[in-house]
Amino acid sequence: MTLHTDWRSIPENARGTVAALGNFDGVHRGHVHLLHALRAARPDHPLSVVTFDPHPRELFRPQDPPCRLMLPAVRAQALEEQGVSQVFQIPFDEDFSHLSAEAFVEDVLIRSFGVVHVACGADFAFGHRRTGNTARLETLLSPHGVGLTVVSQLSDEGGPISSSRIRRLLKEGYPERAAEELGRPWSIVGPVVQGDQRGRLLGFPTANIPLGQHLEPARGVYAVRVTLPDGRVFPGVANLGRRPTINDGQESRLEAHLFDFSENLYGKILSVALIALLREEKRFSGLDELKAQIAQDAQQARDLLGA
Q1: What is the pTM for the complete model shown?
Q2: Phi and psi torsions of 286, nearest 5°
Q3: Start and end of every Riboflavin kinase domain (predicted)?
Q4: Tens digit of pLDDT for each residue in 268-281?
Q5: Which of 10, 38, 65, 155 is found 20 to 30 A from 167 (Cα to Cα)?
């Protein structure tokens, strides 16, 4: 898979694909459904995705907290696993946000990417102030001989599967239900940074990972599975929140304790999958009570994960 981040400079060998349009945040089951529909409609051409970074919401509503289910590099990897050969990741900045619907089709999709067929969801909107819809997209593509497949949202008993619905489930503390929508557990991916090593003093050394641009899910203690850069997976327990007993409460962080593990992880990129919320964040009377609760949390996580 090849990732392109400059839409004005696309090599000739990357052109001529069938392209799925959207943010693809999370690459959830609905996104996979869209990719499968496009592949079925035009199996004769390589599969590509046209997406954006940063998420448009970050430009239009910078005051909002981070909302991403997935960082761009992880999204690209997930798309590659679905058979996508080219990812056209458009920098969504002020200038691009003012591009008209006509210019998006003519300059980006046709002239730069050379697409031969396009697919999107029924609610896809594009162009300055989101003035383009699927009907307009079809009208603009047709003179170039480029077809359009509009794919209905995949639904389950809870309704249409969407990134916003998955975000809501995570914020409400239901990672298991979010995993059903995603098709896999939701993970926070990032580098291990230096912490205050208080977990080590409590008998539970932790790998500290900043949330960065990830959505902040419900604060509390989770049973987790941690994937190392070499592919090894370890069960563990993690605290996600502001540590009200021992911290100043200014910044949320993810602190993961890997069971039966003693290697140095500083600077390594870990993927921490949230499997189940064991309890909500709470304040304890002191370190002794906290230490006892951590031991109880760890045993509960071991039991749940079969570790």
Answers
A1: 0.91
A2: -175, 180
A3: 181-306
A4: 999 999 999 999 98
A5: 38
